[in-house]
Amino acid sequence: MSEIPTLPAAVLNALQQIVGDDKVRLDDESRSTFGKDWTKVYAPSPSAIVFPKTIEQVQAIVRLANEHHIALVPSGGRTGLSAGAVAANGEVVVAFDYMSQISDFDPVDRTVVCQAGVITEQLQIYAEEQGLYYPVDFASSGSSQIGGNISTNAGGIKVIKYGMTRDWVAGLKVVTGNGDIVDLNRGLMKNNAGYDLRQLFIGAEGTLGFVVEATMRLSRQPGNLTALVLGVPEFSAIMEVLNTFQAEMDLTAFEFFSEKALQKVVAHQDLQRPFETEAEFYALLEFENNNEETEALAMTLFERCMEEGWVLDGTMSQSIEQLNNLWRLREDISETISQWTPYKNDISTVISKIPDFLTEVEAVVNKEYPDFEIIWFGHIGDGNVHLNILKPDHVAKDVFFEQCHVVSTWVFEIVEKYRGSVSAEHGVGMTKKAFLPYSRSETEIALMKQVKQVFDPNGVMNPGKIFD
């Protein structure tokens, strides 16, 4: 860790008065832990970590920051992959771990109120206890927080059926950059009384204000979820499989991963291959298997894909344990490859263009850096693919990231060609802000900066993220 950046004594004393002496931390371990997210590009260097317990304390912290021109960075589960929650320049980190209460469940409206620090899995379990379902799900659900999910509009593995986080936010309470508390939408299903400011804060990465409380919608529980893992010979075949199944049945998920990804997961996670046949890519389909007719239809479609040559082999889960193990083949990829210091790109385009898009990206990386190993996986059902480049052992981390930065330029030129997004679900943060023009026009970026000025006139809210 670097030396502790200087925080004026008056500010430190004021923070301690707001949250209590024990809720302000200056030690190296806390600064390292709460000053970073899952990215490894920037070294954390916050001046202090504060832990508010109430909305009013958050408001007081923001007003203090405005008074003394102190930059604030929000910290949730710190599972982000774009350095959106990294405090690298002496900022004060506002950590929401102590704001973790769930309240005001309404079984008629199917809504529940969550403080910003509620863990995603905590909400999922709570919903299940009420006989309902919170469908936004991803590998980091055991540590990510609702406030962070909202601030990055998290997606995950169920988007094809349930959509993104923004589709489940019925209302928001936020503390804006100038310290106002605003209550947005109030849980209403229909509300056309002017602008829906709630949507501005969803995906804003804490640059307009801090999400402190959210009214979240819940859904009915799905019945007898069943997974199919299918081996396919080439990527274009995955799209044929998707079209075949979507034409005749509703899917709750449609994921893909490469043979290289599977090999690493099997080798490091004590899992078995889904079947002996080796394929270039694998598709994981999930659906509600509520009756014999649904299962028979799934098998018919599987056989049709086999006859067409789009599928080489496949397996279907027959129990909850098998369902979970098949999902682990996909969900454990990120954890498995983390030991190789992967450079991650989270990109998207319209579903129909994904095969050509992926082929062009892989060709340019392989041509320029043939010793780089590429691991592909993603949410192919919604046009989102994850490009992971693994660091060779003989290449220093700094050199590797510099080389990947060059790769990203080429990749994002392809993204721009296909009218896609440089960040499908992980946000922009610091790692992608230089590439924002590949997805947003000059006019759009100018408007974003004007919005930022309205809600955060003194620039204290997560500065340096999304744009400078």
Automatic annotation (TrEMBL):
The keyword Magnesium does not apply. It comes from Oceanicoccus sagamiensis. This is D-2-hydroxyglutarate dehydrogenase. Homodimer. Belongs to the FAD-binding oxidoreductase/transferase type 4 family. The keyword Transmembrane helix does not apply. Residues 42-221 form the FAD-binding PCMH-type domain. Its EC number is 1.1.99.39.
